[in-house]
Design goal:
Elements lengths: L9 H18 L5 H13 L7 H21 L4 H13 L1
Helix pairs in contact: 1-4, 2-3
Amino acid sequence: MTKENQKPSHHDVMPSVANFLSNLWLDGEFREQPNYLTEIFEAFLETEMGNDLDLRTKMIGCIKTSKMLAKALEPFSDKQIEKACSKVILV
């Protein structure tokens, strides 16, 4: 069985999520991503290419996911997020 077909464990998933958040933290201003996505998508939707229901649905999904991430991390400082990510990555 290839690695792609194996069911990931909690211990496989958490370091990956921590890596993702750590990379976001290093990239800066991840809390503003929902606003950036909304601004980009609104401009794109005014074009002819943006007149696609399937694409609009995907864009809305991206904005929602980004907002949920920002909301989930809202109570924590950048330092707290960085510290938590480094602890999970080491596990």
